[in-house]
Amino acid sequence: MRKKRVVVAMSGGVDSSVAAALLKKQGFDVIGVFMRFWLARRSLGEGGDGYNRCCSPEAEERARQVARILGIPFYVFDFRKEFKKEVVDYFIREYRAGRTPNPCVVCNKEIKFGLLLRRALAMEADFIATGHYIRLNRGRIFEAKDRQKDQSYFLWQLSKKELRRCLFPLGGYTKTEVRQLAKRFKLPVASTPDSQEVCFVQTDITDFFKRYIKQKSGKIVDVTGRVLGQHRGLAVYTIGQRKGMELPQGPYWVVGKDTKKNVLVVTNNEDDLLQKELTFENANWIAGQPPKFPAKVRAKIRYRSQPAPATIYENQRMVFQKPQRAVTPGQSAVCYKGPELLGGGVICS
């Protein structure tokens, strides 16, 4: 019988490199794949002079070097066109509509566990694998051992159909242990820093907005409607933001955006950011069907937020035990039962 074949998404970082090494050690027929993604150009002219943080030539060379050390085949897939259409265009549409999107969620669904999985199956692979920190058990996603690095939040749009073809070798390790494994495997990526920013934004996000989203200045008002100043374009701001408004007698925090009137709403009372409930849309449940409503869950409204006790209802309403700060339309509301990821939706109000 032939070995089970697995295509590993290799970014040149420590996580995906160690994932490939672990699978090779476990006896899989491992193939490394490096994906090229779209990059925002630096100038307004055609073309660009730089690289997406996730797939720079340096990152590609690191991934290629790891593949040589492990003795596995290595391929480069050009996904720039698909990435632009599925991830970047979505990102721009959402900001234009006054929301704050999460491009990593869409990238995982459409590119890594969509397009890459289809390519891998065409290569007669049995599985794809990534360096995500999650645990997988019989088509069910659980938080990783390392809760500080857990990435289950970004995978709520997946289904059992994709998950039955996925492997996540790092779910039972801490980040420190993974770096130690990289040294043990003699991989030249043990000290590679983690990527934190939006990968396709080469400069800063404000510069990206200037180039790809037509901005129009407008009024800044407080919650009573009193005009306080002028904003630079609604896309620049997000709920809970404090800096960047240059208003006297602050501090002020953003509490709302009226895209029809092009008005930014702020408050000087931070308690105005607290909200006890939200509604969400485009729900996806990992099991293929929703939990029995009303369902008591642990809910996260952004990646770095702490899970909070909440109840979700059939009309896609979520009510928290305690008010949450800066609930932001466009972000993901993700639900857990204990350590298990149930699914989630996109916050709409």
Structure, explained:
By secondary structure, this protein is an alpha/beta fold. The chain folds into three domains: 5-184, 3-Layer(aba) Sandwich (Rossmann fold), CATH 3.40.50.620; 215-268, SH3 type barrels; 274-347, Elongation Factor Tu (Ef-tu), domain 3 (Beta Barrel). It is 24% helix and 28% strand. It contains seven helices and 17 strands. It has helices at residues 14-25, 57-70, 80-96, 103-122, 160-163, 175-184, 205-212, and strands spanning 5-9, 29-36, 74-78, 127-129, 134-137, 140-143, 166-167, 218-222, 227-231, 253-258, 263-267, 274-285, 295-300, 308-312, 317-325, 332-337, 340-347. The chain is globular and about 70 Å long.
What is the compact description of this entry?
By secondary structure, the protein is an alpha/beta fold.
Please count the helical segments. Answer: 7
CATH class of the largest domain: Alpha Beta
CATH fold label of the largest domain? Rossmann fold
The Rg value, from CA coordinates, equals 22 Å
Strand order of the largest sheet: 12-15-14-13-16-17
The major beta sheet can be summarized as: 6 strands, antiparallel, barrel
Number of strands: 17
| Alpha-beta content class | alpha/beta
